[in-house]
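FAQ
Q: What does a multi-component entry look like?
A: The components come first, one per line:
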Amino acid sequence: MSLGRLAWRNISGSSFRSAVVFLCALVVAGLALSTVLILRGARDSLRLAMDRLGADIIVVPQGSESKVESALLMGVPTSASMGRETVAKIAAIPGVAAVSPQLYLSSLSNASCCSVPEMLMVAYDPQTDFTLRPWLQKNLPGGLKLGEAIGGTYVFVPKGEQNIKLYGYFVTLKGNLEPTGTNLDRTMFFTFDTARDMARISQTLAEKPLAYTPNIISSVLVKVAPGENAHDVAVQIFKDVPGVTPIESPNLFLAFRKQITGLLGAMLAVLAITTVLSLVLVGLVFSMAANERRREMGVLRALGGTRNFVFRILLAEAALLALAGAVPGLLLAAFSVYLFRSLIVRSIGVPFLYPSPLALLALILGGVILALAGVTLAASLPAYRISRLDAAVAMRE
Amino acid sequence: MTIIKVAAVLIVVMALVIAIVPQFTDCQSQGRAIELANGKTVAMKCHWTATAELALAIPIAAVGILLGFSRRKESMRNLSILGIVLGAVAILVPTTLIGVCASPDMLCNSVMRPLLILMGVLLVVISVISLIASRRITEQPA
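Then the predicted structure of the entire assembly, as tokens:
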């Protein structure tokens, strides 16, 4: 009989002990993967959102910093507004290479004039824009024309329709951006001309006219000239332009990052406590089993089994149970996090991006290795002790 | 035999989850309904999904109970196959057959739908395990 088969027979013979180790491996592996998926997803999501914005500094009206961040990340409608003359003032500051204004608008929910659920709409200036330009140059060399838009990955034309109706105005969706896991995935981008035209049409065809005022903007994206210090430029903007707050790119979504750090601490603490308790429990179970099975191991030794063989049988049992518990635990965790992702985003208050299939596979493999190492480590001390016992002593006791 | 007994208990627990949780996570339970032009209100489709799942939970619970008490290999096999079919239907009701509300912010979309899919998948997996286990057991005398 092979080592693996013998170990499997022993596992089948002791269902309670096996169930305890199986459950410990399942819980630890599942919890570890859930923690990693959520924290890594939140971090990736913020990084991608910052890359998407592509600016070194974002200038927003004073007092609306968190509102703008919440609008971009969580889709909370915002009414941040400032005069368009701010753009020229910022552009005149030394060290500024490019400036581009944006206006944040919101679609109507449950209205017959809108064919999509409530979403953030961003109007941009195609003449000065530098955030969408790389994507547009690659996918739509002609740029966006009047009545055209591009959307985040979850923006789509309703079934059976050819356009998206917003405020009674038909918008043609020309493409979708890559996912970020943030509300930018549910955001639609179009030019200021389209916003103006939509506002005109909404006066007669919408349940409520679009809140668009000419020469009003929500934010100014700033690109700093090469070699210039973004912090110095931001300080200069703060000094020279009244009524605005410049947010440097590394400080963007700071509140969300703090939330992630807090979450990280709490989740790691829970994970650490669970892991330690599980490993202690596994060690205890194996220790009890080792005492109960002294005679059995003594017989094995008397039949010619070496100390090493006895040690390896016990470790093989632990490894098989770890594997049997970790694999379903990891799959269940991955599947559950995927299914409940929108509930998780709402509960923890930070967006998160589910990893690619390849990254997920790597994480699952890592989880299997972790569970195998943990359980075999916890079982190794009792296994070593029983394997060192003299055969005659073990059989007599 | 132990695997079958554990599977039977888990199936009964899942039947309870499938029956109870949707009753508290559909839009009707949150006080939301579609208001018609004449002022009357109509339940949203997630309410009908919750009702259908309640009806579906009864045969699922019956499968679990019968599986726990059955001694014949053939009965276990047939009940396991029925469990697989019912698990698949539990997934299809909130996804294809009836569905839930479209808005991702609604509780039926963020809690009820994923929970029912998860329960359906677990029911299928546990029924498959019990089907495999039923092939290996030696029949006990009645």
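Q: Is there any commentary attached?
A: Sometimes. For this entry: Chain B has one domain: 2-136.
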